[in-house]
Specification:
This protein has 115 residues and is mainly beta. It contains no helices and 11 strands. The strands form 2 sheets. Strands 2, 4, 5, 6, 9, 10 and 11 form a 7-stranded mixed sheet that branches. The chain has a 4-stranded antiparallel sheet with strand order 1-3-8-7, with no helix packed on it. Strand 9 and strand 10 form a beta hairpin.
């Protein structure tokens, strides 16, 4: 089992920044990929960014150049630095871990971008 706990969400004005963190615990050895997903009201959950154990990162086109994903293996955390935030970034953000074909999810953290 893998447990994931997100933190760092909140309310921010357009153009502002937030940093999300995901603390992983439990059976974290051999996690292949970790990532951030988001789900806005009335929309499907979508991948925002991911980071594999080999160090490969991917980003959704909508966040490229604004968001940066990083993984701290020593602290067992996954971070998402979000800059130049837009109202359309408003969503619940979920941390995800993929291990031996099984997906694990955190409880989510709300990000609201509004003036």
């Amino acid at each position: 089992q893998v447990q994931l706990v997100e933190s760092g969400g909140g309310l921010v004005q357009p153009g502002g920044s937030l940093r999300l963190s995901c603390a992983a615990s439990g059976s974290i050895v051999s996690i292949y990929r970790m990532g951030w997903y988001r789900q806005a009201p009335g929309k499907q959950r979508e991948l925002v960014a991911s980071h594999t154990s080999a160090g490969t990162t991917t980003y959704a086109d909508s966040v490229k150049g604004r968001f940066t994903i990083s993984r701290d293996n020593a602290e067992n955390t996954l971070n998402l630095q979000m800059n130049s935030l837009k109202p359309e970034d408003t969503a619940v953000y979920y941390c995800n871990a993929l291990k031996t074909g099984r997906n694990y999810w955190g409880q989510g953290t709300q990000v609201t971008v509004s003036s």
